[in-house]
Amino acid sequence: MGHSGGVDLGGTKIQVAILGDDGEVAGQSRRPTPTAGGPKDVAHEIAGALRDAAAEAGIKTSALEGIGVGSPGKVDDEAGTVAGAKNLPGWGGSYDLRHALEKACGAPVSLGNDVQVATDAEFELGSGQPYRSLLGVFWGTGVGGGIVLDGRPWIGRDAAGEIGHVVVRQNGALCGCGRRGCMEAYAGRASMEARARRRAGRGENTVLFKIMEERGRTRLTSGVWSRALDKGDPLARRLIERAVRALGTGIASSQNLLDVEAVVIGGGLGLRLGEPYVERIRDAMMPHLFDDERPPVVALAALGDLGGAIGASLLVKKAVAARA
Amino acid sequence: MGHSGGVDLGGTKIQVAILGDDGEVAGQSRRPTPTAGGPKDVAHEIAGALRDAAAEAGIKTSALEGIGVGSPGKVDDEAGTVAGAKNLPGWGGSYDLRHALEKACGAPVSLGNDVQVATDAEFELGSGQPYRSLLGVFWGTGVGGGIVLDGRPWIGRDAAGEIGHVVVRQNGALCGCGRRGCMEAYAGRASMEARARRRAGRGENTVLFKIMEERGRTRLTSGVWSRALDKGDPLARRLIERAVRALGTGIASSQNLLDVEAVVIGGGLGLRLGEPYVERIRDAMMPHLFDDERPPVVALAALGDLGGAIGASLLVKKAVAARA
What is the largest CA-CA distance in chain B? Predict the structure, then answer.
């Protein structure tokens, strides 16, 4: 097999990796996700990022064995479409992303769910390698989950893994999804930022927004949270502790149901806060773990920021095998 | 294949079914589970119940193709042992149940988890038949869960399916397991009875204990709850509503993670309260269901009280296939 391309399509950025025959990253590129326009404009940027990364690997995109895309929204690989990707501009309906990219790049395109391909990447090449069953938890703007059972992805009827919407408190905090008490309502960066803004608006003392401005940001990014924690900011510390407690509760509930061998923690906040916070999440799981004499391994994602793109490139190998 | 025996080993009763070649129930028997003694005494009663049921089917136990046992506690089919079955007398340690029953009955014995075999029975012969993925929820003294994914039982590292210990409220009610906020702490009959006793002790008005005494019971059985609801008892109604809300929340959380096609509701209380309460559980799931445009089918268990024993008998077929 030759080179394959992997695309991690996020609400903020498009990350591309080109993988060589040996599984090594031969090229990569990154572009901001368009904030205006529609699916066509996003597809145009993806194709551009693929060309950049392929050039770094010394090839044309038409020489790729295939291209895999990990996408948010409702992904239908059979039809080649992505629908209802709320975080992407003008992408409420269904769009034939495969057709657009195949035309622009001249290589066959496979589609997968963003969180599931990141979980598969950790399973095949990252922290999940030693295990046959795995729960991937991606702690970022929201909290996404991916499941591998007995060596195979479990996606249910296409909507499995919504660990962010496992309830941690009946009638609890309002979630971005409109429901109450979801884990994401406590642990998602978007919910945490909304709460921090309300608290700061009421006069509570915090350096969060000062750091945000100093760094030229308009949002409380993972880096902003991390810096505020380093400075001992009490509001940041309280909100992160609350998030960790919710993560511990929701992951333990999931483990009581699934009994997997390992949990891998990734996502923007997870990767940024790193091992010390993986340890805290592990501790926060213990009070709710039914089989607490045999907790699962809880590990930091090993592939970092490139995990999503590498996972997407693995879709190519599977598509080639399916065609054979 | 000839006749096979199935044993549902519960804390209250031992239920046995003999299944004919055609899958029809050819004989059955029931004995109370010993409340004193140890595993040997329990095994003795199981063997007796098997002899009774086999006699009803017109055969000896030694003529059985095999015997399957669905057991609580830690079941190790490879070793033939059951350990830590808290609801059975003197069964804290490990006991070689296979050896005891094979010696007493003269037929090969297979062991399985009680809740998982009941789920498998609903999957193969009951309400789950039309589906490939299934969550079984057994609402009784506790709340047990069994999982079938892509046509196969998912048992994790042997401890999957503990849906009763999915958290519905951080820092919530104390559960029989010693943890806080588990679904079972609100919905398990044991927790509900403890709460009813406290409330009645504080002078709250209820017919629950009057009905219990009239029926010659020492516990609030499913029948007692059902009769109290029929009489419009306000305490019974409130506690059952609270249980239904917890079930809805915990099952919806599980569905957000697993995205199965169907949920089957069984167990003593589930079967006794029947379809109207399945409907209420379905409604209680909706506010927490992430993919609420496509809720799973929620159905009452079809095999009733015999589900566990029938499911255990299915272990025989699998053991025969594995030997071949």
Answer: 63
Let me know whether B226 and B271 are in one domain. Answer: yes
Q: Is residue A92 domain-shared with residue A139, that is, in the same domain?
A: no
B7 CA to chain A: closest CA distance, Å?
Answer: 25
Q: Does residue B32 contact residue B52 with C-beta atoms inside 8 Å?
A: no
B-chain residues within 8 Å CB-CB of A246?
170
Per-residue pLDDT of A34-68, as tens digits, reads 989 999 999 999 999 999 999 999 999 999 999 99
A234-258 and A275-285 are packed helices; what angle lies between their axes, rounded to 10 degrees?
A: 60
Range of the domain at A98: 4-113+306-323
Interface confidence (ipTM) of the complex: 0.94
Kindly report the pTM of this predicted structure.
Answer: 0.94
Structural domain total, chain B: 2
CB A72 within 8 A of CB A89: no
Minimum Cα–Cα distance from A287: chain B residue: B179
Contacts with A150 (C-beta within 8 Å, 6 or more apart), sequence order: A132, A133, B154
Regarding whether B282 and B142 lie in a shared domain, the answer is: yes
Residues from chain A contacting residue B157 (CB–CB below 8 Å): 133, 259-261, 294
* Of A76, A70, A67, A69, nearest in space to A106 by CA: A67
- B195 lies within 8 A of chain A by CB: no
Convert the pLDDT of each residue in A191-201 to its tens digit.
999 999 999 99
Q: Which residues of A107-123 are buried (b: 16+ CB within 10 A; e: fewer)?
A: bbbbbbbbbbbbbbbbb
- pLDDT band for A31, please (50, 70, 90 cuts): very high
